[in-house]
Design goal:
The protein is of the alpha+beta class. The chain folds into 5 domains: 1-93, no CATH class; 239-317, Tetratricopeptide repeat domain (Serine Threonine Protein Phosphatase 5, Tetratricopeptide repeat), CATH 1.25.40.10; 330-393; 402-510; 519-752, PPM-type phosphatase domain (Phosphatase 2c, domain 1, 4-Layer Sandwich). It contains 27 helices and 13 strands. Strands 2, 3, 4, 5, 8 and 9 form a 6-stranded antiparallel sheet that branches. Strands 1-13-10-6-7 form a 5-stranded antiparallel sheet, sandwiched between helices. A hairpin with a 2-residue loop joins β2 and β3 (555-563).
């Protein structure tokens, strides 16, 4: 019976859920609404069980969608549309996947299912990313992550953080990318999610490869591979093993170990062909083409690259085409086909610019510079070379004197090679003369004639050798002159940048004096707080973190805030925050911590012209605000993301903040800030802080400091005088950070009651 049903289903596949003309009546017939709901759930279950049979799975889902629409059950219709989109996505039919995921998204909003809305957005981001539409993918991921944070859904939050990190990596924004992946890894480790840990470790390995830290890269990829192999042994299907093998091939390729690169790439190609993963086949073909290019086997390289392009065109897959076309252009240039080389390199640059792929854009500029130099267009060659050097400096932060060092090294190497050639020639001539003299003494007159002949031939060879040496010397001198021109050009750029940096630094230093003047002065803070400390460490001279203090009606209002951004933009936001807080407190006789934050959020949104649902300014701040009654020691606390710690009797009490910022929120919500009342006691210690300290990378494992370590540190030092506590915080962070760059502004305020 089941086989007969299967034959009917396959033969009656349909294309539009609004019509049942291609579906058998037995499949879509139902007695009543209750019977219809049971059928829909049954079809959804059958679709999952037959996911390896595309036609059968789609037919069940189409039947489920049709019945759901007929009985107006939007909840079941949303599930059906989402599963349909996922089946098309799994089978690389991206336009149809987008259509059904969008329908799922619309239905999620109608039934107000935020979790389903976030899942639909995340899957839309996956599809756009695979299609090379990275801006669209990033937009969907950002919308999904806002909803997941609102729902406190850590599992989906980590998944979306990983996806965003992948897009940042493609953009060349490695610092933000690695932060996203480490945040995701922290969440997966807390959830004990082995597959999530493996995926995050693989992405971190990819980033270390981008930064040319191959030892760290292989370490993280091997960690991921080990986990994926265990998952596969347990019988759970996974493509993780294939992805890890592909990444190892890429690492060895960049290290110059072409034999290992070919080995891993061919292993991945075989797996992809067996699994009929044609997108993976196309990518692996391009990888093999690049490996053989570096091995100078241009015929093999061209064959693999052309196959990859044709397959990607048939799949409408533009990912990686910028790199593939660049290599094809370089092969054409090597083979003397300059017109074909120009077309390929221009198309490579076009894809790199459209997809915002900075590494490919940089390499396209360099290849076009070589091409125009070869065709005699010196002006265009220099123009492309300038674009290449500018982008290279921005991406890699290389030292300006690198070309000078390379020039001296190359010059020394050529001198050594030239001297060695001369010594070899002189040694050969010396041996030849000894042989001639031996034959003279042994052979007599006949040998003397032979010797004369050999001397003549030796003279001709020496003359020819000297000509070769003169030509080589001339070529070396021409190369030296070219390197000197490049060195002078880079030196001039360095001097211009140095001058501009000096002007900018002076301006920022002046801005720092202005910002410092707006902070509460030490005399006033000593008078109001008594024993306290402020640890403040800006990332870029001026700070986006600020502290603020006021006294009114025998109450002390104290605040520590973390504005969006750091450096000059963050400083502007901090000045705006100080001004608005002063105005709010001065205009209100009754002071309530939650109402102050509500008023501050309203003013920020109005002043920055922020609107819900419109992409644009999302600037704002995270804040912790306390109001302390000096007579009763009653304290009000309200916070936006930033908590407050109170230490009493060797124990830390945490006052939790609301998970929403001062400023526009990702989604419209009527949720208000909550006020926490707390009875203080004498000798209580209060700590307010931004997230810069706990989020700083460092230590032996290059990970975040984290809140748990921060709490332990405060418990170790809270008995010390406040000035010594500040010194301990500074010393601990200096040791932890080591050679790592500072990621964000840091601020900690401590006060003793």
């Amino acid at each position: 019976m089941r086989k007969i049903l299967f034959a009917l289903l396959v033969s009656f596949c349909w294309g539009n859920v609004s019509s049942n003309e291609n579906l058998p009546d037995s499949l879509i017939h139902y007695k009543n609404e209750k019977d219809a709901s049971k059928k829909i759930s049954y079809y959804l279950e059958l679709s999952d069980k037959n996911k390896n049979n595309f036609d059968l799975s789609i037919t069940y889902l189409q039947a489920a969608s049709y019945i759901s629409s007929k009985i107006n059950n939007n909840k079941l219709l949303q599930k059906s549309e989402f599963k349909t989109g996922f089946v098309y996505y799994s089978n690389n039919q991206y336009p149809k996947a987008i259509f059904h995921f969008n329908k799922s998204l619309e239905l999620s909003k109608i039934i107000y299912n935020k979790e389903a809305e976030a899942l639909s957005l995340n899957r839309l981001g996956n599809v756009y990313q695979l299609m090379g539409k990275y801006n669209d993918a990033l937009t969907k991921y950002e919308e999904a992550i806002a909803i997941n944070r609102f729902l406190n859904n850590d599992q989906e939050l980590a998944r979306t953080l990983t996806n965003i990190g992948s897009v940042y990596r493609l953009y060349g924004n490695y610092e933000d990318a690695i932060n996203q992946h480490f945040d995701a890894l922290d969440i997966y480790e807390e959830l004990n999610d082995s597959e999530g840990i493996a995926w995050s470790a693989l992405n971190i390995g990819r980033l270390f490869k981008m930064m040319k830290n191959y030892q760290k890269s292989i370490e993280y990829v091997n960690k991921s591979l080990s986990i994926y192999k265990k998952i596969k042994k347990s019988g759970k299907p996974t493509t993780g093993v294939t992805l890890c093998l592909k990444e190892k091939g890429s690492i060895y390729y960049q290290m110059g170990n072409l034999e290992q690169a070919v080995k891993y790439s061919e292993e991945v190609l075989l797996i992809n062909k067996q699994n009929k993963n044609y997108f993976g086949v196309a990518n692996t073909l391009s990888s093999l083409g690049m490996v053989y290019f570096n091995a100078r086997e241009y015929s093999k390289a061209k064959n693999y690259l052309i196959k990859s392009v044709h397959l990607k065109d048939s799949l409408k897959d533009n990912t990686g085409k910028a790199s593939i076309l660049r290599y094809l252009g370089r092969i054409c240039m090597t083979q003397g086909n300059l017109s074909k080389a120009t077309k390929n390199l221009q198309n490579s640059l076009k894809y790199a610019l459209e997809q915002n792929l900075k590494e490919d854009e940089k390499e396209a500029y360099l290849s076009l510079s070589y091409l125009n130099e070869r065709t005699g267009n010196k002006g265009k060659a220099l123009e492309y070379f300038k674009k290449y050097t500018t982008l290279k400096e921005r991406l890699n932060n290389q030292k300006i004197n690198e070309l000078e060092l390379q020039y001296e090294f190359d010059k020394k190497q050529r001198q050594i090679e030239f001297s060695q050639q001369q010594r070899d020639i002189e040694q050969k001539a010396k041996l030849q003369k000894q042989k001639i003299f031996t034959w003279v003494f042994v052979g007599g007159f006949l040998l003397m004639i032979i010797i004369a002949y050999l001397i003549f031939k030796g003279y001709q060879r020496k003359k020819k050798t000297n000509g070769i040496l003169r030509k080589q010397k001339q070529e070396i001198e021409e190369q030296r002159d070219e390197i000197e021109v490049q060195r002078d050009f880079v030196t001039k750029q360095r001097d211009q940048i140095s001058h501009q940096n000096s002007i900018i630094t002076d301006s920022i230093e002046y801005a720092k004096r202005i910002q410092t003047a707006l902070f509460p002065q030490d005399k006033f803070m000593n008078q109001v707080l008594g024993e306290y400390f402020v640890f403040m460490k800006p990332r870029n001279i001026v700070s986006g973190d600020f502290y603020w203090l006021a006294e009114k009606n025998n109450k002390t209002i104290v605040t520590v805030a973390d504005c969006t951004g750091h450096g000059v933009p963050g400083a502007f936001m901090s000045m705006l925050g100080i001004t608005l807080l002063t105005e709010i407190v001065n205009q209100n006789e009754e002071l309530h911590a939650d109402q102050i934050l509500e008023t501050l959020r309203k003013n920020i949104i109005e002043l920055l012209h922020q609107e819900y649902g419109v992409r644009g300014s999302k600037d704002g701040m995270d804040i912790a605000l306390c109001i302390i009654d000096k007579d009763t020691l009653e304290m009000q606390y309200a916070g936006a993301y930033n908590p407050a710690y109170i230490i009493r009797n060797k124990e830390i009490l945490e006052l939790k903040a609301d998970k929403m910022p001062i400023g526009i929120y990702a989604i419209r919500s009527d949720k208000k800030f909550q006020k926490v009342n707390f009875k203080l006691q004498k000798d209580d210690l209060i700590y307010l802080f931004s997230d810069g300290y706990v989020d700083q990378f460092g230590g032996e494992k290059t990970c975040k400091f984290k809140p748990k370590a921060f709490k332990n540190l405060l418990l170790d030092i809270y008995t010390l005088p406040m000035s010594e506590q500040k010194e301990q915080l500074e010393q601990t962070m200096e040791q932890w950070q080591g050679e790592q760059s500072q990621l964000d502004d840091m601020m900690i305020m401590g006060m003793r009651i």
